[in-house]
């Protein structure tokens, strides 16, 4: 019996009109739930599926079973943040905050072209504006650059220069009008290259006699020229091989001579170390004493004494 009143409350909340929030696929959007930051209980619903609930007293969170739950989280008190928005996320979101309920309608606008790249001049193409989350009787239409109106899906057959410029996708919800601007850039179409006919292929083959053909195509060269070029490459390859072989032989011989010289030098050193050492002995006469240079002044000798004559 307790489930019936709660089910009636959810259904009535869904049926109530709420303000619209516009976003695009792949973007991140935040849905507000009042201005209070402190509360006793908070719950977010996507339609009738519970996304999550928060107990303000204990601070515990309880995850719901809604498909959007893994990409949703509570931010800044009671706001709900959704990342990686998808088309199926569009619809009514219900927030219950301490018994007060708020309904927010998420509108997902997607604009696409076919082909997805730039539209080419003179080619066929499609421009589509789709708004997920609108009531079934809502009208989505395009406004051309020249001011004319068109449906939500425009077929170009073919695309002209008059279609270039800003297109406005407009729709209304709950008395408010929303616009999404899309700029069409036209790319010059590439000329179609016609494949050569069978007759032209035959003429090309018969126009040159004794031609040398190599993939991917044939060149009007005599077959002799091709053979000469082939022999030239063979001669270059053989000559390069012999040059490399000669360099290798020279390097090997140089290293071999170096090893022989080192071995011979080592043997000579060993032989010299085994011989006994002999010392020279000189039997030369000693040198004469060096004469003294200069003259030494001595005392003069005394004169002989003469006898005194007796008178």
TrEMBL record:
Family matches, as SMART domains: IG, IGc2
Family matches, as Pfam families: ig (PF00047), Tcell_CD4_C (PF12104)
Limits of the Ig-like domain: 5-105, 122-169
Transmembrane segments: 230-254
Alphabetical keyword list: Membrane, Signal, Transmembrane, Transmembrane helix
Cleavable signal peptide: 1-18
PANTHER family: HEMICENTIN-1 ISOFORM X1, T-CELL SURFACE GLYCOPROTEIN CD4
UniProt protein name: T-cell surface glycoprotein CD4-like
């Amino acid at each position: 019996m307790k489930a019936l009143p709660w089910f009636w409350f959810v259904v009535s909340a869904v049926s109530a009109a709420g303000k619209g929030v516009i976003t695009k696929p792949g973007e991140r959007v935040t849905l507000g739930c009042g201005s209070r930051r402190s509360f006793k209980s908070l719950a977010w619903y996507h339609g009738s599926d519970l996304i999550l609930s928060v107990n303000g007293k204990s601070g515990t969170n309880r995850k719901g079973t809604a498909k959007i739950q893994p990409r949703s989280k509570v931010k800044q008190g009671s706001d709900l943040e959704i990342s990686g928005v998808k088309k199926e996320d569009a619809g009514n979101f219900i927030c219950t905050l301490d018994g007060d309920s708020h309904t927010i309608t998420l509108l997902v606008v997607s604009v696409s072209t076919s082909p997805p790249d730039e539209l080419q001049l003179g080619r066929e193409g499609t421009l589509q504006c789709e708004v997920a989350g609108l009531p079934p009787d809502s009208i989505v239409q395009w406004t051309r650059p020249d001011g004319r109106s068109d449906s939500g899906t425009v077929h170009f057959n073919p695309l002209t220069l008059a279609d270039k410029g800003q297109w406005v996708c407009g729709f209304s919800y709950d008395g408010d009008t929303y616009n999404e601007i899309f700029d069409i850039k036209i790319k010059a179409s590439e000329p179609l290259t016609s494949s050569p006919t069978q007759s032209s292929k035959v003429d090309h083959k018969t126009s040159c006699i004794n031609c040398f053909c190599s993939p991917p195509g044939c060149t009007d060269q005599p077959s002799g020229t091709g053979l000469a070029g082939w022999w030239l490459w063979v001669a270059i390859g053989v000559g390069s091989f012999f040059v490399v072989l000669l360099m290798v032989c020279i390097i090997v011989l140089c290293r071999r001579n170096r090893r022989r010289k080192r071995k011979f030098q080592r043997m000579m050193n060993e032989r010299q170390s085994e011989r006994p050492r002999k010392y020279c002995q000189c039997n030369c006469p000693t040198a004469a004493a060096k004469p003294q240079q200069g003259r030494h002044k001595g005392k003069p000798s005394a004169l002989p004494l003469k006898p005194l004559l007796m008178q």
